[in-house]
What we know:
Bound molecules: 2-amino-4-trifluoromethylsulfanyl-butyric acid, cobalt (II) ion
Oligomer: single chain
Helix content: 25-40%
Radius of gyration: 20 Å
Amino acid sequence: CFEHSFLWRRRKLRIGAILLKELIRYMNRNDLCWCGSGRKYKKCHQDYDEHLREMKFDFTKGQIRPMKKLINNPKDIEAVRAAGVVNDGALDLMDEMVQPGVDTLTLDNAVAKFLESKGAVSADLGFEGYPRYTCISVNDVVCHGIPSKDTILKEGDIVNVDITTKYKGYYADASRMYIVGGHAAENAERLVRVTRECMKLGIEAAKPWHFLGDIGAACGKHAHDNGYSVVTDLGGHGVGKEFHSEPFIPHTGTPGTGMLLVPGMIITVEPMINEGTHRVTTDKKDGWTVRTKDKKLSAQWENTILIPETGNEILSS
Ligand code: MF3
Ligand code: CO
Ligand code: CO
């Protein structure tokens, strides 16, 4: 997940430059397409551009068209798919290793070894100074839990393992929740289940020519209907050629608002759902660990998805 304000600051800085670039890019039918597919413009994104040009965007709803750099070509998509396969393999390893008595540093090291064996690396390590290979977040930790020898999992804990693989220059990002030992208190098990449903509903809403707000609305409604709150300080993000890119993906919101979703976009859907308040705090000492303000439970599931011509496709889960 990513901080809302950070992307927004960066966006404001870039917006002028991007607008200019998009305006002056004039394409001839027989030019090579701007998406880098190697195909002629007329056989590739010309119809897409014309469709976008005809679309009316309602700025009062925050509707904006996605910048061209957020559109992945078939080669990019194939590369993220491959990163997703490695990432899923690392998460599958966690399915076996998350057990009562294991410490989270052991899990982190196992992921590091697995990624290395596949010729991949962790995107987390060194990201803005992050010290480990994965994020492992237990109970009231919302996200960015730093693996440690001192964090020993016990029966009934709920834990999120979040892994981002960088493979041949491309990123795939996903996380799964575990109920340690297979059983937890009823409220904890319900939170884990409902949070997964929120992610699934958000993914279902992420169709081409729909809007970003549709994802948040679907996630958020299910959370709120179940008496939970949705973390808004952090959210999903574009992913693929970069670890975190625009757009910021909120997990609550209003249908028909925000950026248009179009074929070729790759994003994460990663709702963080809380039992109590949606408010979170970041650990002052380590600068990373995000916890619920009221110390109640939080859960998160994350998939990387592609927006294709119809529906969507899960690239890492
Ligand atoms: N994987 C997280 C996400 O879903 C980001 C972790 S960044 C780290 O976006 F530095 F904390 F590892
Ligand atoms: Co993410
Ligand atoms: Co992640």
